[in-house]
Amino acid sequence: MKLKYRLVAQGTADGIVLINLALIDKTDVDEAGLTYKEACQMVGKDFQKDPIAINVIDPSAVTVTSDGIMNDGAVVAFACSDYGKINKDFGVMSVSEMPYTETLMAEEPHMKQWNTEYYRGRRLYRGPSPEDRKPLESHNEHMTMTGRITNNNTGSEMMNVVDMTEILALFTGQMEIMKGGDLLIGIAGPEVSVGIGMVVRERRGRIFGWNYGAGKTAHNSGIYAKTVKSDYPAIAADKKIVAEYTLRALDIGMVPGLHIGCSPVVLSIAKAYGKPIALDNIEDAAWVELESIGITRETLSAPSKPMRREEIIARADEILPGMEDAKKYKASEICQICYTTH
C-alpha cells in the first residue's frame, strides 16, 4: 500500500519553517481504504527520529477562519508523531462536520456565506469532533500531543514543546500547498498576532467557541496582543488570495464587527472597498488592541475613495497588513511530494 503526502520539511523557506509538516489529501486516504489515524500513523513512521505535525485535508469541503471568512477546503483530522509514533490517547483528533440547519444559519450570521455560489452544497468542517475530546478537555479541546510535538488549534499551530519552537500554518496557506499555489512565508508580526484574536461566535469553531463574537477580542490582552504571536514564523497564502476570500464575504453584505470579525485584514479590506464597518459594535478591549497597531476609529471612518474589487486584489500587498520579512514562494519550492508504504 502506498500513500501520498505533501511535506514541508523543517529548515525550508530559508530556514524559517521550524517544524516538519505533512499534509494528506482525504481522497488519497479514502482510496487507500484507511482511517485518518492509520494514514497519519503511516506518515509518522517515515520520521523515526524527528517530530512531525500531520493534517488530513478535504479540498472539496469548506471551513471558516477564526475571523469568520469561509474558505475552500477543510482540515478533517490532525495529528502529531514523534520517533515514528502517535500517542494513542492524545496524538490524533478528527474534525466535526457541521450539518446545514436553519438554527445554525440564524445563530451564526457569517454562515450566510455558505449559501453563495462558491460554497453551496459543500460539506463544512470546523473544530474537533466531540467524541475525540478527552476528560482533560480544557487542555485538549483543540490540540493533539505526542512526545515533543503538539498540533494545536485544529491543525493551524505547531510547537516543539522541548525547544519551544513554533510555527503558524494559517489555513489559507495549507490550501495553497495542497493546490500547488502561491504562498507568503515570514514572521507573523503584530498585525497577525492581533488578528488571530478577532473572532466570530461559532458552535465548535476551529480555534474558538461560543464565548466570543464579532466585535470582540478573544485575546483580551490590551497592548500586549500585538506581541502574543508576533515573533512566530508563519505560512500563509499570498495576500491576493486572502483578499479574494474576504471580498466574497463583503460582496454579500457581511459587516466587520457585526457579522464577521474585526481583524486588521478584514477591516483594511472593508475600508479600501468602501464597505460599512460596525464601529460602534467593536468593544473597547478590541479597540485597544487595534489601536496598538495603528488601526483607529478615526482612520476607519475618514473619507476615502473606494477601490474596485480588481484593484484591491492587484494591490493586496500594500492594503493587507501583516507579516514581517516575508517572501513569496510557489508551493513547489517549499513542498516535497512523498509516498509512504508502511
Summarize the structure.
The chain is an alpha+beta fold. The protein is built from 13 helices and 14 strands. Helix 7 (239-251) crosses helix 8 (264-273).
Oligomeric grouping of the chains: single chain
| Order of strands in the sheet with most strands | 6-5-4-3-2-1-14
The helix content, as a percent range, equals 25-40%
Largest sheet: 7 strands, mixed
Count of individual beta strands:
14
- Termini Cα gap: 7 Å
Class by SSE composition:
alpha+beta
Our Rg estimate from Cα atoms comes to: 19 Å
Q: Uncertain regions: pLDDT < 50 for 5+ in a row?
A: 136-140
- Amount of beta strand: 25-35%
SSE topology string: EEHHEEEHEHEEEEHEHEHHHHHHEHE
Mean pLDDT: 93
Shape: globular
How many helices? The count is 13
Please tell me about this protein's structure.
The chain is α+β, with helices and mostly antiparallel strands and 342 residues long. The chain is 27% helix and 26% strand. It is built from 13 helices and 14 strands. It has helices spanning 26-31, 36-44, 102-107, 137-140, 171-179, 189-196, 239-251, 264-273, 284-291, 297-301, 309-314, 316-319, 331-334; strands at residues 3-8, 20-25, 52-64, 70-81, 92-98, 124-128, 143-146, 149-152, 157-160, 165-169, 182-187, 233-237, 324-330, 336-340. A 7-stranded mixed sheet has the order 6-5-4-3-2-1-14. Strand 9 (157-160) and strand 10 (165-169) form a beta hairpin. The protein is globular.
